[in-house]
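Hi team, as promised in this morning's meeting, here are the two structures we talked about. I've kept the exact order from the run log so nobody has to guess. The first one is mostly here for context; it's the second one we should focus on when we meet again. Sequence first, then the predicted structure tokens.
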Amino acid sequence: MSNNTTSEHKQPYPSTYYSCRNANSSYYYQFDRCPPNHDITEFVSNCENPNSEDQLQNIPAFGKTSKKLYRNLYCALCHGEEFILWNLRFDCPESGNVNLEKLSDFVEDHNCRKQLEIPSKDLDQYLFSCNPYISSCPEHNNYTKLEVACEYEPMALVKSDSKLFRNSHCAACHGLKEIYDWCKENRGTNEMKQMPSLSILFDYRTNVFVIYDKKSSNRNVGKLPSCLKNSVFDINTRQCRQVVYNSPLNCTATRLSKSEYYITSDGLLYLNNTQRFLNQSEFIQDSDGIISICIKNGGNGVSKYSIAEGYITLVGLVISIPALAVTIIVYLCIPDLRTLPVLGAAITVSSNGSPFLDINLDRPSVCPSLFEGKYSIA
């Protein structure tokens, strides 16, 4: 049995990383898989196999830059994006005194229904709706004609037993007889939905919660506890949860300017000069968004400079250091040419440049990194 989807839009991305998923009784294409070989296993696990008991793992999120819809914040993180969480709303049939400290108990005691809400109407345009449907018969069945009709007859979506089928033949080979025309059923009648007696909205974008009591028409707005940039407030535990983990780099690191890199859609760091990709474990990003990487030192780290730059530096050193040596010898042998400032400068430059001769030609790009550190005060 295979599942397919229909969509009102052309599928915007390759289907490797996303599927048609439910979000608040509507179906949208959501990125629900991490790129292959993603090296932060926690992100992969929480994205692809979220814990149904964990609230934060079951709230969709938009990417701040791409505006792609992700299954949850961890799917956004493993694609290298900051996220915008959907709003979380609890609709309760009865009014009552809501206390943020005991919200979980209140929601459970009053049979409140959890809803998800898009954080801003401006993001509606980035939702790609879809409809998952069953398009084949069960394996090892004896309905050969039905199987052919199911797969090759024209598609006319029907609904039966709360499931959507490609056509009536697909529903029949699953043993279902009560079939409804899905298109007619979904035309709707613009019925007004009854407002709940009490509604509790958590807006993660503005970090507030709103309590609306229908009976009294009271609308109270409260502020959620402030969290650090890489943390999100968890209403169940009433604590800030860190969701982005940057382990410190065990090396000598250098900061990159924004012109030296860009972050790909699958979360890799691309170095413009060396044309290399780094995994998320090979760089860190601080709370201000500044990227740091290891510089080459012996066999560890990477260089942000190109191989060509390394060879140019090497050639310059090979030429300049012997020239400096000759200059010093001439100054020592011919007193009339000797001036103290020039002699001092020559000795200083020679002593600073000599360590660059002790390099590995297999890694010439180490030269600019060391050179930068040596003359950074100039």
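And here is the second protein, the one for discussion:
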Amino acid sequence: MDVTAQSIEMAGGALISATSFGSGDAGNIDARATSNFELRDSGTGILSNAQGSGAGGDVALRTQGGRLRLEDGAAITAQTTRNARAGDISIATGSLELLGGSMIDNSTSAQGRLKGEGLTTGSAGSIEIVASESVRLASMSTQGDTSRVTSRSLAESSGAAGSIRITAPAVRVGDRASISATADGPGTGGEIQLDVMDLALSEEGRISTFAAVGAEGGSPGDGEARSIRIRSTGEVRLRDRSEIEASVGANRGGDVEISRPRSMVLEDESRILAQARADDGSGVGGRIEIRADAFFASPTSTVSADSSAGVNGEVILTSSIATIEEDLRPVEASLLDAGTLLRPPCEARAASAGGSLVVASKAPEPIDEERWLSSSLVIGERRESQESIAEVEGALRRMDDAGRALADGKLEKARRELDALSEELDDSDRVSTRLLVFANRARLDAEHGSWETAIRSTREARRLADALENDFVRWASRVHLAQTQILLASKASKRRVQLVEGAHRDLVDAVRIARVLGTAREYSASLGRLARRYEMEGHREHSLALVRDAIGAGEQFNTSAELHLWYAMEGRILWTQGRASAALNSYRRAVDAAARLRRAAFRDPRYESKVSHQALDELHLAYIDLLFQSADLGVDADAQSRLFAEVRRVAELSQAVALEDYFRDECVALLESRTRTLDELVSEYGRGSGSRLSDCSFEPRRAARRDVVRISKGYVYRGV
């Protein structure tokens, strides 16, 4: 049966059917739509079923780049009920959606079997899905049926389940939806193969090949589970109790192979299993092999190839970035111990069966750690450049001027500075500086609402990043690209998912490169930014594990530029978990780390922007707010007094920072007014000594050199 149309829409129980009831084979169905193909409502479907002894027919559905959508219980099936094989199902489309309990089903059973007849022997057919854009399974029907792609041998059949192969850039399985190739009887489970860029399982989504129980009496089955092979070039993520499983009742568990994703993430009690569940010791666990650039698993997740009473299987993990939880450090006891702070409410009723009081409070807002992309890429490039200090610092000055203009809302001035720098670099081999220009142009275009231009600038920046050879500059470029995309994602809602996923990939790359560099500073910076990305997406448990590892690496330096930000992130997450004492301890560390960094800023101008009064004001206010909220949680008088003393300390520290910045700016203004006189002095000294004027400049904000001593943001001459 052939059906061809511009678009096909079926609803209200409509059917396309090629079913046989005798010894003949069921017919084939070939349906093509040049745009969209939609099936809607329970009872609506495309069926090729063999109800007699004949074989099932094949079902082939095609759309030319359009969408195939099944919803509200619609179905595509190819089934057999006796000893012949079911037909195959093949789908080629732009995007495939199965919603509201819809299904693609290829199964074998013994429907209509007479009492006393043995098991049928028919096997299920195969399912092949090719989508040029995405495959999505989600949402249950009102009756509680889940959406699913399944090849299944039912309990009354000894036949094998068929294979399932899906090829698509993105596959998403959620809301208890499933992709499965299972044998409920003594037959073997089928094989499942996914060739994807990104795979996401959420809300108990499931991929499984399973050999379960025998047909008669519910005894363990003799069949084997087959393999699940997932090839990915992007991210594989399981969350919310999702599963990938290749298990059996008896016999040997199947294989699970996940190869070469950039990152593999398990969180929220998710599991990867290849188990044998027979209690008589007859089962052997399967084999799980995961090869990923980065592998992260939360403490509540499971990877297991064990056997209930038999021989365990094996789990092989190959990753350049190991699971984070192995190296977690316990949080030190707080000076503000929760036991001394919190008094049980309604204490007079403690002995009676009374009600309860729940104290809720607002979590602090995250600090915006990157308002403008800094010039560290230029500094990194200078390490191997033969250009003069003046040339490199000219690029630094223009970049900083553009950043200040953007911060002040002077978008046109910022654009002029970037355009001028871009013209200077047209024939330059300074790849990283050009990369930084494109990254900041993307931010500027986003402020103007020019999303397509912003994304093109980001793509050009990535192209340049791929050409870099210096490991330090490659690391810095990935961090900058991730920051750019996160900034764009906050403004371009239509491209948010694409941009956030791109940022995640760049941050995972940055973590990997930092490991190669072997420096804890870069490793801390990369992990902290990756943790921030997870926090933004609401994955606080995993974010907490990452940020603690970032803190552990950052504490190896007395002056880590982001350590105070990572402590603050830890505090925010702990506060949302109801761990008030630990949260306050983290914020106290954040404030102290910022104070150390501020002292270091008098020697190193790179830290200036991170420890200004404006940058630290949010941190101080967030900590003070939590201290006040803690004081309201029914604490005793002594604990409340300690909390208020800490409030006073932080408030005084914040005021001191503001005053220091005010007087420093006054000093800068005074020095700037004397620049002409100082330049004349340097010029006179240069003629007498042969020194280059470019090596003895006094312009504020330039890097410190041998002839100048830094005073806050200004410089005074030391050579004469």
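Starting points for discussion:
Residues 1-111+122-221 form one domain.
The radius of gyration is 32 Å.
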